[in-house]
Amino acid sequence: MKTTVERSGTQNVTLALPKGVLTRVKVLAAERGTSISALLAGLLAKAVDDDDAYARARRRGLAALDRPADLGTSGRRPASRDELHER
User: Fold this and answer.
1) What is the band of 3 on the pLDDT scale with cuts at 50, 70, 90?
2) Which residue has the higher pLDDT, 65 or 1?
3) 1 Cβ neighbours under 8 A, 6+ residues apart
4) pLDDT tens-digit series, residues 41-59
5) Is residue 16 left, alpha or beta, with left meaning phi > 0 and alpha meaning psi from -120 to 50?
6) Where are the domains of the chain?
C-alpha cells in the first residue's frame, strides 16, 4: 500500500480493488452524494469505532466476572443440592 502525507493531517492511501467492486463503489458513492474517499473513510472509521467499542465491552464483561452479583444470601448456601432436588 503506497501512502503520501498531506498538509491537512490526512494521509493518502493507494488501494487496489477488483474492477467490478470499484464500479459498484463509484455508483454507491454517487448515490450517496459523496466521494469514494469520503465513503471509505467513513466505513473505516466505523470499523475502528466498532472494534474499540467491542474491546471496551469485553473489558467490562471480564471485570464483571471478578465482581459476582449479590444474590442476597450473604455468601451462605441456603440449601444443599440434594435438598433443592428433593421430590
Assistant:
1) low
2) 65
3) 13, 14, 15
4) 999 999 999 999 999 999 9
5) beta
6) 19-66
Q: Distance between CA atoms of 64 and 67, rounded to whole angstroms?
A: 5
Distance (Å, rounded) from C-alpha 58 to C-alpha 68? 16
Single-letter amino acid code for the residue at 12? N
- CA-CA distance, 13 to 67, in Å (whole number)? 45
Query: 48-67 in b/e burial notation, b at 16+ Cβ within 10 A?
Result: eeeeeeeeeeeeeeeeeeee
- The dihedrals phi and psi of 18, each to the nearest 5 degrees, come to -60, 145
Distance CA 31, CA 60 (A): 39
The whole-model pTM stands at 0.65
